[in-house]
């Protein structure tokens, strides 16, 4: 399946792809994204990378540093984020009182969110019981999570301070000849579970935003294209919209997703690995956290 697709990573200050730049995956030099709301420097690393731009390094020296080597991390999104004072009106048209308060106090840790959203349904690509599992995680691990993966415009966001593996206040370290941005404890998220094969069937994007004002500071898009739609130079042979449509048609769906969704609607108790039942409570909010 993975052989049919090629991956491209872009980033910008919002959702409009016209204002995105290509992210050179595994390059040491970070990409700089600037807007009226924030200045961001970004490194994206993926182990065993074979996507665009063509000729990109297959890996990064980052994965040879600890603790990433011991953890077997497969990919990393690392950013240096410097917010700016918002203008008199936020990009979402939030009320003037909220914007005025943000200007004086900065961005609340409760409002800075990191996560995913989509402009198209993904319910047919989800395993059964996904929303039930999400409710368990919200109740048991992170009440700040919010999302609906079965919506027509699905989303999943959590507080950035609990979404990042590490957070560092300061400049951090830039290894310009090797790993790029490095933080002993820094604004970075890593995982040991995502491989290029998984990316081939689950195109994802990441968004850093303000929950209250809806201002968006950074969007990182992982876009899939059929290899036949990309020329040797790495450019699309056809319009972007058509290329995305072609790639979406070939992705497999979960045959059990509708069954799992129906089970969730019936409100069945979720089963833990040891066979015990847990009744999933209603939605929680950040206000429920002590």
Automatic annotation (TrEMBL):
Residues 86-109, 239-290 are annotated as: Disordered. This is Domain of unknown function at the cortex 1 domain-containing protein. It holds the Pfam family Duc1. It comes from Parascedosporium putredinis. Residues 86-106 have a biased composition (Low complexity). Residues 7-181 form the Domain of unknown function at the cortex domain. Coiled coil: none annotated.
